[in-house]
């Protein structure tokens, strides 16, 4: 069972992953990231940040999509993590309706872009990414910006409206 889909450019942050797994009752994490699969050191660092009682799989995006369709994983409580809005949208399009979507820290590398907009502290997007987030919102209106499980969630729709993006 998929508990949530999360976008965070840090993927797994050791300071917040415990809170997410607890609040979502997740016992497994799938990181869908094409680059991380081939980077042994970064993969190891990501896995080391996860509590020992949580299963972790790092998969290429397409492999993660196939894995998520496998009925033998039905008993697991899975948190899916991606690091780009494009990957978020691609996976969300393949999931059943109603899966919670959480957006965490994203856009540090966008600070130098002339078209970048800061939607919230720790959440900066370019014009192209805004289009992707609008599509995400169209698929899942209950998408929220929430960097840690302890923070108060802010609806993505509110952030888009406040910044005149709708």
TrEMBL record:
<keyword id="KW-0963">Cytoplasm</keyword>
<keyword id="KW-0598">Phosphotransferase system</keyword>
<dbReference type="GO" id="GO:0005737">
    <property type="term" value="C:cytoplasm"/>
</dbReference>
<dbReference type="GO" id="GO:0009401">
    <property type="term" value="P:phosphoenolpyruvate-dependent sugar phosphotransferase system"/>
</dbReference>
<keyword id="KW-0418">Kinase</keyword>
<keyword id="KW-0813">Transport</keyword>
<keyword id="KW-0762">Sugar transport</keyword>
<feature type="domain" description="PTS EIIB type-4">
    <location>
        <begin position="1"/>
        <end position="166"/>
    </location>
</feature>
<dbReference type="GO" id="GO:0008982">
    <property type="term" value="F:protein-N(PI)-phosphohistidine-sugar phosphotransferase activity"/>
</dbReference>
<protein>
    <submittedName>
        <fullName>PTS sugar transporter subunit IIB</fullName>
    </submittedName>
</protein>
<dbReference type="GO" id="GO:0016301">
    <property type="term" value="F:kinase activity"/>
</dbReference>
<keyword id="KW-0808">Transferase</keyword>
<dbReference type="InterPro" id="IPR004720">
    <property type="entry name" value="PTS_IIB_sorbose-sp"/>
</dbReference>
<dbReference type="Pfam" id="PF03830">
    <property type="entry name" value="PTSIIB_sorb"/>
</dbReference>
<dbReference type="InterPro" id="IPR036667">
    <property type="entry name" value="PTS_IIB_sorbose-sp_sf"/>
</dbReference>
């Amino acid at each position: 069972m998929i508990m949530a889909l999360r976008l965070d450019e840090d993927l797994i942050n050791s300071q917040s992953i415990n809170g997410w797994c607890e609040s979502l009752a997740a016992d497994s994490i799938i990181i869908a990231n094409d680059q991380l699969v081939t980077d042994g050191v970064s993969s190891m660092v990501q896995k080391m940040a996860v509590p020992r009682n949580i299963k972790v799989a790092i998969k290429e995006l397409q492999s993660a999509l196939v894995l998520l369709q496998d009925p033998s994983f039905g008993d697991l409580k899975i948190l899916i993590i991606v690091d780009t809005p494009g990957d978020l949208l691609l996976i969300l399009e393949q999931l059943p309706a109603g899966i919670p979507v959480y957006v965490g820290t994203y856009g540090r590398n966008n600070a130098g872009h002339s078209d970048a907009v800061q939607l919230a502290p720790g959440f900066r997007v370019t014009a192209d990414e805004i289009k992707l987030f609008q599509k995400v919102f169209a698929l899942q209106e209950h998408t929220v910006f929430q960097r840690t499980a302890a923070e108060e969630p802010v609806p993505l729709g509110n952030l888009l409206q406040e910044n005149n993006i709708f």
